[in-house]
Amino acid sequence: IEINQKDEENEELRSQLAKYKHQLKESQNDQEQYRYELENFQRTIDHYESEIKALKNDKEELIIKNAELSEKYELLKLVNTKQSNNINSNFSYNESDVHKVRTNENEYENSDKKTDCHDENRTLREELSEKNKTIKNLQQRLNDMKKTLQKELKYHMLPNEKTVPTTPDTGLESPKIPKPNLSNTQISPVSSNTSLVNHQISPLTKTPSLPHSTFSVKKNLSSSDMSVLHEDVNFKYLKHVIVKFLTSREYEALHLVKALSVLLNLSNDEEKIIKDTLEWKMSWFGSKPKLN
Questions:
Q1: GRIP domain location, by residue (predicted)?
Q2: Residue 199 belongs to what H/E stretch?
Q3: Which residue from 88, 118, 203, 263 lies 20 to 30 Å from 134 (Cα-Cα)?
Q4: By three-state DSSP, how is residue 286 classified?
């Protein structure tokens, strides 16, 4: 009987052991399944983290671009405001001009004679202004030529010349000219390779008056000598204006266009092209002028 009980207990224990082994196997299978799912979750998390990192980088780039665009926008807004103010001021100025013109038209609309006189007066004023400018340019060139001639007479005195005391008016030494055969004496004109520093001609420099003896020498020079001298002086003045024009800024060079036009005998169209080109270089949004 005891043996039978022991056998039954052993059978029961075996069945429980088999049951536990089965449960253990199922637990191991579940554990493998959970491990596989955990790895999948980890890979998903890593993928999301990489995407989050990329999105953060994109966000930083977008922030930088947004700051740059904001700065450009503010700059353009400032420029636009400035241009708008200029346009408004010009518009107001033009409105005042239009009002003046309309007022003048109302005053003279009933009188053709007054209108003709007004037009003629305006034309004469324009002509007078142009002639005054031409006279000023010619007077300046004449003063520059006198100044250069005075320097050349001082540096290239004749062999028989003697120096007299300084004149009280100009503070310059007056060369004394010998009497015999003065008209045949050759006086060296301004050399073409003379240093521009020693003979620099400035349109804004005031020219002192020449002594009386200098004018005597000028009268006794032959016409060919005077022609060569004037051509050399004109060349040096032209050289100085061109160098100043090329080395100046646009707004400074714009004031030299008229002098350059006179020296080079430019036409009105050529002078206008040079002015338009300089104004285009100074402007922000202007269009380049067309060269014919």
A1: 228-277
A2: none
A3: 118
A4: coil
- Specify the pLDDT at position 151: 67
Find where tokens 């009280």 sit: 168
Return d(Cα 135, Cα 146) in angstroms, integer. Answer: 16
pLDDT for 120-151, tens place per residue?
788 888 888 888 888 888 778 777 777 766 66
Q: Count of H helices and E strands in the chain?
A: 7, 2
CA–CA dist 70, 114 (Å, integer): 59
Q: pLDDT band at 7, cuts 50/70/90?
A: confident
- Whole-number Å distance between alpha carbons of 139 and 206: 11
Residues in the chain: 292
Phi/psi-derived region of residue 264, left when phi > 0, alpha when psi is between -120 and 50, beta in every other case: alpha
CA angle 199/202/205 to nearest 5° reads 110
Signed CA dihedral, 53, 54, 55, 57: sign only: positive
> Is the distance from CB of 228 to CB of 210 less than 8 angstroms?
no
**pTM of this prediction exceeds 0.70:** no
CA distance 141 to 145: 6
Residue 259 CA, chain-centre distance (Å), reads 21
pLDDT over threshold 50, residue 192:
no
78 CB-contact burial (10 Å; exposed 0-12 / middle 13-18 / buried 19+): exposed
Please check whether residue 241 is in contact with residue 260, taking contact to mean a CB–CB distance below 8 angstroms. yes
pLDDT digits (tens, 9 = 90+) for 202-260: 333 333 333 333 333 344 445 555 555 556 667 777 888 888 888 888 878 888 888 88
pLDDT of residue 193 exceeding 90, the answer is no
Q: DSSP of 230-275, one letter per residue?
A: HHHHHHHHHHHHHHHHHHS-HHHHGGGHHHHHHHHT--HHHHHHHH
Both tokens assigned to 142 = 């004449």
Answer for the pair 229, 149: CB distance below 8 angstroms, yes or no.
Answer: yes
